[in-house]
């Protein structure tokens, strides 16, 4: 049995995430995890909240809570939303955990012992008005490379180049807007990534199957000359630096966050130490490790985190496949947590059940390029795919069995050429679907699922059982028996995408609960003649253009920001 370790980029702690975060990392990871479980692989799907750094501190201050209490509450809030979205994490941990403290300090010590840590004095912005050192992203100004006026001290939003705050032209505090900044010296520790470049190049050369988006971002970092990375910060909240003279400093959030993938696995193992061993996943040869994330996270996963792991000189599992995606945009603009622009996940779930969102975001995944979410497209696609294609198939088929056969799957009648052709076509679609899942092409996989739904509808329409019911009862019985099983296959392939609806349908066919196994050769014979089926209630309600208009007015025009301190996390 193959072993797949799957991680989703860690959602930042400050507030509920938006549809972009779901589309960029959480959902593709979940769909892949579900697919791998369906084909019988052993899967460990890990995620956690990313809790350190200044945005969390500012969020806590804004909420009038102690930072620990704030993170605790926000973690529970996010965990509940992900449960409602049916994200099937094996564990949803926290980067502030005891395990991550210990492990991050462990990595630091190993890196230091191996000569990959260097002490330097940094000159950092101190804001008099804010009474604190300003972390990189809390200094904003003009980008020296592209002239963008919304560059942050760590990265330019427009040209994506990484920056140092002192590179910025006309710097100001992102917290108060103050330009009363003073540069003060402070001692910091650097991870000597430059000493690991050759090793990193060799490591990247051994990775196969990376997307061009990911490879090009990683190459850009290497070709522009990899820099040593400052891994400490002048903050209170975070993982303390275990080194004399560094009291009052903590590790940079991007140093400890990826380590939390491992630490969250340790949390998972500690919940049931008799049966779970985190080393089987992180220090094993037979694991395939896949990471899912948005494109801004690629450098940290393709370069920085591998440097930490390689530099430790310990046998850690490094990533095999990085599935990075482009941006989901919202009605022609950016999603933004800080500006409260877009649809947030709690609001989405209050509007419609998870499966509507899951389906649209997966079938329109921002893979080849950015994708714009609009309520018009959402309504159109959801109606076409979910209501008119899948919902209609399930309803017309099962209602027919109920009305003509009292809900009992009919037994007589031999398959004919139509069924043989159907099996052949189905097998081809299933092959394509499995291939697209395996390469993580979500849009194409959704297209294959849609094609299977259409195939089923086409079969039912062409065989017209309502006509053969009188003219050729045996033909009608074969058609109905086959169509009921086709509904089962349609729900099975839909399961990674729309698990809740798929499970409702499978239950109404009397098929076993739990993970529906990948369709095998007997997939059109699983629901046996003589078994009783139920017609499920309406699976998807149809959305109207008025509804789209209403939502566009509600979300598109919103500008108020409940949390305005600083740029997006
Ligand atoms: N609009 C988007 N489209 C696709 N992926 C996104 C989008 N916004 C964020 N992501 C991804 O979501 C994951 C979690 O991100 P995180 O919680 O750090 O939020 P973020 O990137 O700070 O978003 P925001 O700035 O809107 O708060 C990351 O992998 C990130 O790349
Ligand atoms: Zn720029």
TrEMBL record:
Domain Methionyl-tRNA synthetase anticodon-binding: 409-556
One Pfam family cited in the UniProt record for this chain: Anticodon_3
Residue numbers covered by motif 'HIGH' region: 11-21
Subcellular location: Cytoplasm
Assigned EC number: 6.1.1.10
PANTHER family: METHIONINE--TRNA LIGASE, METHIONINE--TRNA LIGASE, CYTOPLASMIC
Protein name: Methionine--tRNA ligase
Gene assigned in the entry: metG
């Amino acid at each position: 049995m193959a072993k797949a370790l799957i991680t989703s980029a860690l959602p930042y702690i400050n507030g509920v995430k938006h549809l972009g975060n779901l589309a960029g990392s959480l959902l593709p990871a979940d769909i892949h995890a579900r697919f791998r479980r369906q084909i019988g692989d052993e899967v460990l799907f890990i995620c956690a909240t990313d809790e350190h750094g200044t945005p969390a501190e500012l969020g806590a201050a804004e909420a009038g809570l102690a930072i620990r209490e704030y993170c605790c509450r926000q973690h529970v809030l996010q965990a509940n939303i992900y449960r409602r979205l049916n994200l099937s994490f094996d564990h949803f941990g926290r980067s502030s955990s005891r395990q991550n403290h210990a492990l991050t300090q462990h990595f630091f010590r190993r890196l230091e012992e191996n000569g990959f840590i260097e002490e330097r004095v940094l000159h950092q912005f101190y804001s008099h008005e804010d009474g604190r050192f300003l972390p990189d992203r809390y200094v904003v100004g003009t980008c020296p490379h592209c002239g963008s006026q919304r560059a942050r001290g760590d990265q330019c939003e427009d040209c994506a180049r990484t920056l140092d705050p002192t590179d910025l032209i006309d710097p100001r505090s992102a917290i108060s807007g103050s330009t009363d900044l003073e540069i003060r010296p402070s001692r910091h520790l650097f991870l000597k990534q430059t000493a690991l470049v050759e090793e990193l190049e060799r490591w990247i050369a051994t990775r196969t199957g990376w997307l061009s988006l990911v490879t090009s971002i990683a190459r850009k970092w290497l070709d522009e000359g990899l820099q040593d990375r400052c891994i400490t910060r002048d903050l209170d909240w975070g993982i303390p630096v275990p080194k004399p003279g560094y009291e009052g400093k903590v590790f940079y959030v991007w140093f400890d966050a990826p380590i939390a993938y491992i630490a969250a696995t340790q949390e998972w193992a500690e919940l049931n130490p008799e049966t779970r061993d985190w080393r089987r996943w992180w220090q094993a040869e037979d694991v395939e490790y896949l990471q899912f994330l948005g494109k801004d996270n690629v450098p940290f996963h393709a370069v920085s985190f591998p440097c930490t792991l390689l530099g430790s000189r310990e046998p850690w599992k490094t990533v095999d496949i990085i599935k990075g995606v482009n941006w989901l945009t919202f009605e022609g603009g950016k999603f933004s947590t800080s500006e409260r622009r877009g649809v947030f996940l709690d609001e989405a779930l209050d509007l419609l059940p998870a499966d509507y969102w899951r389906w649209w975001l997966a079938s329109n995944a921002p893979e080849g390029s950015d994708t714009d979410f609009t309520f018009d497209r959402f309504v159109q696609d959801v109606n076409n795919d979910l209501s008119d294609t899948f919902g209609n198939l399930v309803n017309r088929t099962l209602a027919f069995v109920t009305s003509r056969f009292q809900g009992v799957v009919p037994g007589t009648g031999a398959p004919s050429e139509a069924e043989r052709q159907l099996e052949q076509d189905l097998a081809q679609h299933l092959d394509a679907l499995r291939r697209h899942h395996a390469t993580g092409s979500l849009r194409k996989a959704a297209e294959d699922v849609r094609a299977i739904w259409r195939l089923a509808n086409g079969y039912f329409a062409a065989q017209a059982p309502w006509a053969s019911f009188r003219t050729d009862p045996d033909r009608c019985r074969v058609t109905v028996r086959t169509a009921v099983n086709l509904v089962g296959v349609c729900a099975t392939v839909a399961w990674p995408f729309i698990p809740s609806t798929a499970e409702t349908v499978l239950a109404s066919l009397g098929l076993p609960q739990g993970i529906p196994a990948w369709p095998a050769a007997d997939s059109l014979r699983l629901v046996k003649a003589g078994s009783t089926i139920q017609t499920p209630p309406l699976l998807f309600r149809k959305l109207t253009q008025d509804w789209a208009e209403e939502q566009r007015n509600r979300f598109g025009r919103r500008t108020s920001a409940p949390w305005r301190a600083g740029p997006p996390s």
